[in-house]
Sequence to fold (347 residues):
Amino acid sequence: MRYATSTKKIPPVYIYATASILMVIIALAAYMLMSRTPANDRPKVFEQITIATNTEYVGTCSIIAAVENGYFLNEGLQVRIQSHSSGKAAMEAVMQGQAHLGTVADIPIMFAGLDNRPILVIATIFKAEKDHGIVGRKDRGVTTPVSLKGKHIGVTQGTSAHFTLDAFLNRQKLNPDDVTKHNYKPEELGKALEKGEVDAVAGWEPFLGNILTQLGSNGIAFNGQDVYESLYAVVGVRDYVSKHSETIKKTLRALALGGRFCNQMPEAARKLVDGMIKTDTKNLADAWPSYRFDLALDQGLLLALEDEARWAIKNKLTNKTATPNYLDYIYLDGLEAVKPSSVTIIH
Fold:
């Protein structure tokens, strides 16, 4: 018996597409194999660590990757992620002894220095220029940056969004007092704008992108690029950091691998972030190439903290009148031992 056979050729485009998909899968598998330590080679006893972090912020990618890919386990650390909606809240959890380490942007660190709080930065883990900004309602007269004058603006005060808003207003030759600020938690901003409690809101992604989508054609966005670069850091209480130097080194080694994964495997990294962030993350793909997930302690951090302290003093956001020496709030030994080339702070 003879069987009929098809002589129809498979179009080359399908062959190439299939090959490309296979190559991505193979590359991802190889990366995971190289990055993971076999379970039998891992330590038998794990040190329990709690990291307080803003799980609604893409800057946590290296931490999420270090947990999900086993990088912390490889170092003998059993890490529990404690969820918060802002870095300010995460740092407060560290100060209250509810977490060993926390992630936070530079503004709360600046205020901690002004208040002489015992905080130490062990490294910055994320930088971005386009994830902060302002979203307004056109039907409330927000059409241009200058039109923000006289408007009511929602913002989480004492955060990087607050600094970005004031810096943005300054760029438009407006004063911070030219607008009326209303304090909201990050997750409350969208509802406040929708209900008309404010005319615009200042914040960060993914909140801003989701708010703009909800407003549709009635929404307008102003980017904070060129006025503020996000610096996201890992901090701990001075006493804990100084007494757990080996733990800090292990944490930094795991975060270095987590950052490399987020940089080199963006699609896989976004899936990890999608699984953690509750809000819509569909806008992350376009912004991802501008994100830098790298460990660092560079001079730019000190300069930013000093500049922000002057802003806080000038706008009477603190009762202090002098800028502290922020070098006293940086822990250099850990990163100098793990990745010395990433330490460029003059000391």
About this structure: The chain is about 40% helix and 20% strand. The longest helix spans residues 12-35.
